[in-house]
Write a structure and sequence with these properties.
homodimer, Aminopeptidase, Alpha-Beta Plaits, hydrolase (chains A, B), peptidase activity (chains A, B)
């Protein structure tokens, strides 16, 4: 056994494994500018976080609008020539407003970047949830800023407002090195019901070379990462109907089909013994994990025991031949989110239930086409049921998977900019969840990058949400480096 | 092919197939006595049916007691030397009272018969259920008597009160030919929670050679039958626990076990492709269907399409190699009565649920021991679960199966007595459901016979419950014949 093999725990490194990258040193001038702005920046963010822009609560609709107007005012105040509040298609009554802002570059051929984020927040109620402090009265403590929206997503949106200012100050520019556009949604925490329509309606003004999604996270402060993909999602409800009403299991049981049994047989048949999904064609087109990405995943300091603790689980289980990280990031899955049939109260009730219901969702990866899944599922269900059981399959809509092209020059820029801000090589991750990023990609025809300046402990959707102030500062720095790096290494003509 | 084979549709009759029996002619004297008593009998039954003895409704406890006292008074009035109201073990506050009555024979060596029935009834509310008339204001119409309890079970209990009177009148006796005991329960419609204890407490006074259960039904008025068995029942809840709380299916799904999936896999594995139950040892000891009984079942005018309509089902499905009647009467089954896990509301919620729950019940036939089932199920469940899923199996108690010995002389007496009353050969059936009859058999050590004077259209537990007056009259006649026939063909010494 060679020394090299021994040093990697017996796992031989491929000869063409990516070299570890050494980040460029930080720009002390730029850091000085950040320090100068820092106190005002935090005060402004605090003001914005005080606005309870809870999109799920109809009583907060005026607050969501106030939040949008606050942001547009702020962006105009720091120099954006354009900053507008955009109503949903259908008008102010149809949904909650987004903010669009634009700051063109003075350089011909500069690439155009669209930053996506959202200004609405999850519900939070100090009276009923165990927050240590009021979620809408931001508090700075131990190097953190606690407030609903501090990490998801106002903090991550706001870092770009300081990022562009220090980018200008440090480079002596009056306009950014890239054509900078911001689209800050107001309904993300409510499922983005009008987002695709909004993007289609404004597709010309949103035209760009690359989308930077600022609404994800990174591995940890010690291991900064860039996410290269989110899985897609397709949800279904399968309803099985047997007897016209619940019937006596003594008089009829064992002689007519039971829809609860048939529902269980369907769910059980959805995975084989290797826990692979059995739907015909399910894996067709799945883009396999790139060797580079697989190698970068393997370098993450993944501790399965700790991960299981965050999953509130005591054992891992999934598709054979893949690691846990591969299973949640790069492999498609089928999951039962709910099942119900018959009697569910105390004690027993001896019936054959009239119906059974299953909620299924599929996570999808690049190469899978969610529109094909519905027909495949319907055929599979109907082909497995005995006479006497009728099925209805209802689709709950889908979100497409989204994968950043690994060879795109903007991804290299993002890794360099973040590496410089964090003083470390930026590894790659993916995100197991799903988001509306693919709508941007599909409507605008631009690749999507994920710049997540947040760590798992930030408490998204939970109590005591916070942002680490040091992380936020590095995010500002990375944002500033990014616009210069993109302009230096990539022009619109080359990129497109 | 012989003529005989052709005549039976190609199915060869076994050489020892039971000969069709010609019933004895009716006793015109006895019928005259019935006619004489008939009007008073119906008036008395009507009075009793007016008492809303709903055992499930705590507000009706006094009515259940009044019903017991009414019956005891009545039985004393017609000549029973003993008729007592028995409180539950634990006293009048612990449960609802039964009635015990006894009329010893004057003949030495006469067999002792215990008739079982119940005087409590199912709930019925004219204000909320679509009854045509008040369920507790009996109405005679078109040869039927409509009232809650008319068939289940006051009518069937009461026919014995006239049966013994006309038996005495027609035979000139002052005491019945058998030692007659009645035990009329007051909690049957509430699951007989104290019945086994009651029987054990009074086992000496209830001692008998045979039990006649008067609380089932027959095939139809045109095809009178005797039921020879009821299935047993064992109910369980299986609770599966996975993650400590519902977790995000995007972040964790596909990489940790999902308790809903595992519950479905268990339920699916409970039957094989032949729809036989796969629990190890499940079929051990199962008494196969007797050839005589199978032949008598086959002679029933069973119409599967009509049966499916009563099952509100469109197709039959069950254990391979058995007919529908065999499946529901003579074969054990496993049935899912309920299943639930995760999200069951509108739309979708992308979670891996923390737990999943299944309600299972097993119908058992003679030879199966329900006390073995719990351990078998627990072992089977635990043996099939992956690491990360924990199971709890909770037993909901059981009812033993009960099968009349087909060669018992009392069964021959019952078939002769009923055959004479109905003017037809009495075929055999069984009952797919379960009842407390096995408690009587096990505690008293006496075989149990089922004398069901009711037809499927009588509306048990449903609206517009009724009894056919002609059927009731034939039941009275059969009861009267039965005591004489039993005494003539069987003495206690022989029978025991």
């Amino acid at each position: 056994m060679s020394e090299a093999v021994a040093a990697t725990g017996g796992v031989a490194r491929a000869a063409d494994a990516p070299a570890r990258e050494v980040p460029a040193p930080p720009d002390p001038v730029l850091r000085d500018w950040i320090n100068g702005y820092w106190s005002d920046f935090l005060d402004d963010l605090t003001d914005w976080l005080r606005i309870p822009s809870v999109s799920a609560d109809p009583a907060r609709a005026a607050d969501v609008r106030r939040s949008a107007e606050w942001l547009a005012d702020h962006l105009r105040g720091i120099g954006f020539p354009t900053a507008e509040v955009w109503d949903c298609p259908g008008g102010p009554e149809a949904g909650l407003p987004a903010v669009f802002a634009e700051w063109p570059s003075a350089d011909p051929g500069a690439p155009t970047v669209l930053v996506y984020g959202h200004h609405d927040v999850q519900p939070a109620d100090a009276a009923t949830d165990p927050w240590d402090t009021d979620p809408f009265e931001p508090v700075r403590r131990h190097g953190r800023l606690y407030a609903r929206g501090a990490a998801d997503d106002k903090g991550q949106v706001f870092l770009h407002s300081l990022g562009v200012r220090v980018h200008l100050a440090a480079t002596g520019r009056t306009a950014p090195a890239v054509n900078l556009k911001l689209l800050i949604e107001g309904e993300e925490e409510s499922g983005s019901p009008h987002f695709a329509d909004l993007v289609r309606e404004h597709a010309e003004r949103l035209a760009c070379d690359v989308v930077i999604v600022s609404d994800t996270g990174m591995w940890s402060e010690d291991t900064p990462t860039v996410c290269t993909g989110m899985r897609g999602l397709a949800g279904f409800q399968v309803d099985l109907y047997g007897p016209g009403q619940d019937i006596h299991s003594g008089s009829f049981g064992g002689a007519v089909p039971n829809p609860a049994t048939e529902a269980a047989r369907l769910v059980a048949a959805l995975h084989d013994e290797d826990r692979r999904v059995t739907l015909p064609g399910f894996y067709d087109g799945v883009v396999p994990l790139d060797e580079t990405e697989r190698e970068l995943f393997a370098r993450l300091p993944f501790d399965e025991e700790r991960w299981l603790a965050t999953a509130h689980s005591t054992a891992a289980l999934g598709e054979s031949g893949h690691t846990t990280l591969e299973r949640i990031w790069a492999r498609p899955t089928a999951e039962v989110n709910g099942i119900w049939a018959g009697y569910t109260g105390e004690g027993s009730k001896t019936i054959v239930p009239a119906s059974a219901h299953v909620k299924l969702s599929f996570r999808l990866v690049a190469g899978q086409r969610p529109e094909l899944l519905e027909e495949s599922l319907r055929d599979w269900v109907n082909g497995r049921l005995p006479a006497g059981i009728r099925a209805e399959v209802v689709a709950h809509g889908y979100t497409r998977p989204c994968l950043t092209p690994l060879d795109h020059p903007a991804l290299a820029s993002l890794r360099r900019a973040m590496g410089r801000a964090f003083g470390r090589e930026i590894l790659l991750t993916r995100e197991g969840g799903s988001g509306p990023a693919a709508d941007l990609r599909d409507v605008l025809g631009a690749p999507v990058l994920f710049m997540g300046i947040s760590v798992p402990s930030d408490g998204w959707h939970s109590v005591n949400e916070k942002v680490e102030l040091d992380l936020l500062r590095r995010g500002v720095e990375a944002s500033a480096y990014l616009w210069a790096d993109l302009a230096e290494h990539w022009t619109s003509r080359e990129g497109r």
